């Protein structure tokens, strides 16, 4: 049979199976061990009988092999029952030139394929069996013909066909998921230790349980065991074992059988190819730029600008903004990752009930972007007058109907509607003005302008500060305890009490009445002890006492009283022997008419005179003098609360608002002298000494000025924002000041905080007449012409960071109004939480905390 010529472009595909039964790999000859797979010869034309017979025989063989291959090959890619077979090509009729080239290629490919662990080249005992590999025949279109020789395109298609067939076989042999060595079992635990260390022993290591791993049979300490291994292999070799390739694992002392897949991987690694046949080292080229449309024009060849290859500044700005908002807490990671669209979203549990009408729909419309939506005004709901059977008072009479006809529709009580009475609902007809009213409604919606009025959804209770309860701030006066009854006038009316003052020890009470008398009361019993008539002529004239003040020094029993244009110095005549001597020494100069050391300006403003209306017995046997001992005459009337003592008890001041620059004068009782601190004319309404510093508070012209008496300079200005100050009181610490004004305001100043009011309170309905701080308790009180006395809890803290606590705790309805006056004066007890009140009704009342 003539041999078929092979094409010179055919190539060998290394995809044969190797199975070796032995402990080493030996190649008997290069041609037998390294087989090549060639494509099957194409069928010859029918004219040649030999070729047709040969082709028919090959087709029969190929068909049988294909059927067996389809039945035997499973999911693992090879026949488990015929694992000893190897696939190889049956091309033996190559031309001589092609044979020589193939042999050269085989020699190059076989370099390094020989097992490095074997030194034997024995050709007689070959352990590799080549089995013919049947590849599918090429399509009929590629059949060889004498008239149509193969072209280069046909040859490339044949090569691709053989490559795909070879890869399919290799993929059947190899498993991609079984490429890891983690599942290999190893009993020896000695690690990477040279095995020749165990040459002198009968074991080669230790297993995981600590037992020895013995050497294989035939191995000893003096022999490396190579000859014994081959001998044992030859003995064990049988017909069933020839199809297996086993090697000896010296580390673990056991035999390992290699699978066809492992043999194929070893062969590919030794030949320098990729270990995995699935890997395509030369993939088809893909033209990635073929899908781009080529623009032809003036700018088609323009080079891309550099800015397109640099990071975007706009994106960097957006990133910085997002990081800033993330740092400030305005957004979170859920917003950045897109889990929620807005930061206003709140996750509500499905268990909680949801409101159908929240009431803030209008606020949502206002806050949304775009033009502001203004809802239309709602139509007035029907009332009783629109009932089909209204009450009789809703049905108009004939006279009322005539009056309604004369009025405009807008001025009528019910507009176009005239209430009528129907016996039942079926008798009610159509409303005659329905079309007109609907038309006017449409005109209102279309033409009438709308204005949005914001509705503040604020809880009124949230605006009220959280103050402590009044019962937790006791003690403070709540109950009327005692009333001091003033003798009535000749006509039977009670004289108005203009002023009152309490002694420093809290035992005595002095009141000044409109009848010109200064009365001394005993606080504990309410007994009237003394009455001093300060009128010009005793028993004649009218000179209302508008101010009284006890000396704040408990050792000086002296009382000041002002009436009209005079100020009287009164000795109360109470006290022990020591206090009486101090009081007599203090009044010695004043009782003799003053010291006479006065400047020309002061002599015009004030005059010291001796005043003696003695003849009465003193209250204390130790007292030498009782009653008024001196009088100071001024050019103007002394104001209400126009006499104030200094805390030391030697200096006092007087206020006469109508005398210009000499309205404020400071007097020294021990020397009987006076001085004028101001040289300019000012309008002054109230004055007060500082308790511990040489400061003088002067209220007038809408401001409160603070002067330093030693340096003779103005220290500070306070702006109360009021019309007229009627009363002034300084806290015991000297850092807080309260003012009472005619416009019903009580103004609190924190001198260390600001020159503006810390708090302005307006609890009275009429002008305030007096404000007072308690010297011992955190209490404050105000009185006004409405007859009420308001008591406040006022705690001042030593910590400058805490604001004063001001809480109204009690409203005392102390007096009733007489004319335009109500409660005229108040005074705190110096040692107890008691308060004394006086009013225009002639009553003087003590209120206690019972």
What does this structure look like?
There is one protein chain. With 850 residues, this protein is an alpha+beta fold. It contains 14 helices and 33 strands. A five-stranded antiparallel beta sheet has the order 10-11-12-14-13. The chain has a four-stranded antiparallel beta sheet with strand order 5-33-32-31, with no helix packed on it. It has a four-stranded antiparallel beta sheet with strand order 6-7-8-9, with no helix packed on it. Strand 15 and strand 16 form a beta hairpin. The chain is elongated and about 160 Å long. Residues 1-150 and 169-174 have low confidence and may be disordered.
Question: What keywords describe this structure?
Answer:
850 residues, alpha+beta, five-stranded antiparallel beta sheet, 14 helices, 33 strands, 19% helix, elongated, WD40_repeat_dom_sf
Q: How are the SSEs placed, and which strands pair?
A:
Elements: H1 30-33, H2 49-72, H3 96-109, H4 152-173, E1 203-206, E2 212-214, H5 226-236, E3 245-249, E4 254-258, H6 260-270, H7 313-328, H8 333-336, H9 361-367, H10 398-406, H11 434-447, H12 460-463, E5 479-485, E6 497-502, E7 508-513, E8 517-522, E9 528-533, E10 545-550, E11 558-563, E12 566-571, H13 577-591, H14 600-605, E13 606-610, E14 627-634, E15 643-645, E16 651-655, E17 664-668, E18 673-675, E19 686-689, E20 695-700, E21 703-708, E22 713-718, E23 725-730, E24 736-741, E25 746-750, E26 759-761, E27 768-773, E28 779-784, E29 788-795, E30 805-813, E31 823-828, E32 835-839, E33 843-848
Antiparallel strand pairs: 1-2, 3-4, 5-33, 6-7, 7-8, 8-9, 10-11, 11-12, 12-14, 13-14, 15-16, 16-17, 17-18, 19-20, 20-21, 21-22, 23-24, 24-25, 25-26, 27-28, 28-29, 29-30, 31-32, 32-33
